Amino acid sequence: MANAIVTGAGSGIGAAITRELIGRGDGVLALDTRGDRLESIKGELQAERLRTSVGDVGDVGDVERAIQLTQDSFGSIDILCSNAGILDDYTPAGDTSLELWDRILRVNLTGTFLMARAVLPTMLSQGKGSIVNTASISSFIAGGGGAAYTAAKHGVLGFTRQLAFDYGRKGIRANAVCPGPVRTGLTEHLFTEEGRQPHVDAIIAATPAGRWADPAEIAKVVAFLSSDAASFVHGAAYVVDGGWIVS
Ligand code: NAD
Hints:
Radius of gyration: 17 Å
Distance between the termini: 39 Å
Order of helices and strands: EHEHEHEHEHEHHHE
Number of strands: 7
Shape: globular
Bound molecules: nicotinamide-adenine-dinucleotide
Largest sheet: 7 strands, parallel
């Protein structure tokens, strides 16, 4: 049984990762800015080994508090799933305000850095740890987001590879999962807002699987990458996109 931190755990892929890890017996510290969402997953899972922390991955104090709570609750941190992320509504560079750019970079990229930096001392002292960052197909191609999101997700993948390079010999594996289209809180507006259906349909048309993913389909790959079953997987970018980027 391992102990994990999952960020963005209140919704979508993060909630699915939490279900998956709790389901296999891991301890999980679920971090999210939205306390209501954390309460909801707590109520759903009723798990003894689930702790929650309301906080922002872009805030050093919130990150440190979550790390401390994980240590106090479980005594080790074996897995970090850095998954919190926000979308820029597909805004092109010319229409991207500095405020939007900073906000997207801070949550998606700086948050991933702050979480990794904060767990490293514990993982190094254990001589073992597994970091799985949620990147995206936007780590490879344009069109899965706007300018800031695509730049941030390219950064998440580069950062993950550097983590693998720097810490592999010290027992820490770092990998990225790169989802394609997943119906979650992040993308729900595309299904519900007027005039967005063509965007949803275009993605289906571009995807050999011919559909959007369920968050659980991403979470199962994250669970694998986080586990000893992936013991020789270092610095990988696991694309889970229904075939979007090869089509
Ligand atoms: P979601 O909106 O359903 O869930 C994201 C969660 O992160 C929310 O509960 C939100 O409250 C939380 N969050 C947002 N900012 C935060 C912060 N600063 N600190 C802590 N928590 C914060 O979205 P999702 O689709 O499950 O997204 C999870 C990850 O997957 C993101 O990194 C996203 O970029 C990535 N991703 C999603 C898709 C997709 O199609 N949904 C595709 C590729 C990658």
